[in-house]
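Need residues for this backbone.
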């Protein structure tokens, strides 16, 4: 029996059929078959969602070799790519073309379809989410038809399908707004908790992109500010190879993984480990093309919950989360990540209609996460938080609908595009209803 497992090992499924469609016609045939048989179908990516959002029940489609850029429009500054293209591949091909996305998260292993459909985002900028950078998309809907959507073509579908949760169809191509390749400078520095939070709003206003990592059970924060430089590409100053190998390979992956193993075995050591970890990485400044500054390699497997809260309430929610964790007696060995996003106009984007602050909670793959995540979820919900669709949460349609003013708009488009629920699975039934 075939077994599908996501990256974190938290979710598994056992599809009855596995198909690698060679083209859009083959996808259409599989959708029509599933509809006729009253079964379900899911296209999977790399499994980087921590939820079962892409878990297949009956038929599992795999993207196979359908990856890469298929069209470039330099006048409109758009690039169209196969939806199964990993972000890492798109970034490399864009660099070769002298182009770049405006913003992205810190992991580049997801497929474009998976990343946009779950609301994957970076920090700051004029668009934090990948989906907010879309100019158009094409998908095979539940009736077997091919539908294209943009601001001008089927705009009602475009308004919701950019963060479609995999509930509206199988994405075949995605068209992104792009920019000329530029140089991004990163300045990373350790700070105290008080200094970081007191200066966070000002730093976020002054820099293009700001990420903050708080080490639980300490007063230490690592702050990363990314800013565009008005210089030629050949003036970039990347990290020396030895420094990248030391910081990003040895310290951030190998040593950190070993320390996590110690903390899992002896939880009482976690506060000391966190103090050591928070001081292991010193200040550094470097510059490079955007994707080599935004993204990092993550070889230590973890589990994650992330919430978006209104920007104005964000730091209060973070302070409360720390207080609750400190009072709980739990020992958490992974940093808490903090980012910001400007409001966007996508129905089920976590930043839909409001400037947002994201707080992400992590644990090592082998650590127990449920009690910690449950405590933090209570705090985030009390601050009107919205959970990341691809990360662990316990929310249901009944309590998600009030969090999204355009929830019914999404459901109405879903009823039209997938009336027989060809693309449903247990996760979607939980968060969208039957």
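Answer:
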């Amino acid at each position: 029996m075939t077994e599908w497992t996501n990256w974190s090992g938290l979710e598994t499924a056992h599809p009855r059929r596995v198909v690698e469609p060679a083209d859009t016609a083959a996808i259409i045939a599989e959708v029509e078959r599933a509809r006729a048989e009253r079964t379900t179908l899911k296209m999977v990516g790399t499994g980087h969602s921590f939820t079962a959002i892409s878990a297949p029940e009956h038929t599992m489609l795999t993207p196979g070799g359908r990856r890469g850029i298929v069209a470039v429009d330099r006048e409109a500054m758009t690039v169209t790519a196969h939806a199964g293209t990993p972000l890492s591949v798109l970034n490399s091909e864009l660099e070769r073309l002298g182009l770049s996305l405006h913003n992205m998260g810190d992991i580049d292993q997801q497929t474009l379809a998976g990343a946009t459909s779950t609301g994957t985002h970076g920090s700051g900028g004029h668009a934090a989410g990948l989906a907010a950078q879309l100019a158009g998309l094409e998908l095979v809907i539940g009736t077997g038809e091919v539908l294209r959507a943009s601001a001008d073509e089927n705009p009602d579908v475009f308004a919701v399908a950019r963060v479609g949760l995999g509930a509206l169809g199988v994405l075949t191509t995605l068209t992104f707004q792009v920019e000329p390749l530029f140089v991004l400078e990163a300045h990373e520095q350790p700070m105290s908790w008080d200094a970081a939070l007191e200066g966070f709003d000002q730093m976020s206003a002054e820099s293009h992109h700001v990420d903050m990592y708080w080490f639980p059970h300490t007063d230490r924060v690592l702050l990363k500010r990314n800013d565009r430089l008005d210089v030629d590409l050949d003036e970039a100053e990347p990290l020396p190879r030895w420094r990248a190998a030391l910081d990003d390979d040895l310290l951030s992956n190998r040593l950190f993984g070993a320390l996590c193993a110690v903390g899992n075995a002896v939880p009482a050591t976690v506060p000391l480990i966190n103090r050591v970890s928070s001081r292991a990485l010193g200040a550094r400044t470097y510059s490079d093309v955007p994707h080599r500054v935004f993204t990092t390699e993550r070889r230590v497997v973890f589990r994650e919950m992330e919430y978006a809260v209104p920007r104005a309430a964000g730091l209060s929610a973070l302070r409360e989360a720390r207080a609750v964790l400190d009072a709980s007696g739990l020992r958490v060995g992974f940093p808490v990540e903090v980012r910001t996003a400007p409001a966007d106009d996508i129905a089920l984007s976590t930043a839909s209609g409001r400037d947002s602050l994201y707080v992400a909670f992590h644990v090592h793959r082998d650590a127990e996460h449920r009690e910690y995540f449950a405590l933090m979820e209570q705090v985030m919900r009390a601050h009107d938080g919205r959970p990341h669709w691809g990360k662990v949460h316990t929310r249901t349609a009944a309590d998600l609908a009030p969090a999204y003013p355009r929830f019914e708009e999404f459901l109405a488009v879903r009823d039209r595009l997938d009336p027989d629920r060809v693309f449903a699975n247990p996760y979607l039934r939980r968060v969208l209803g039957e």
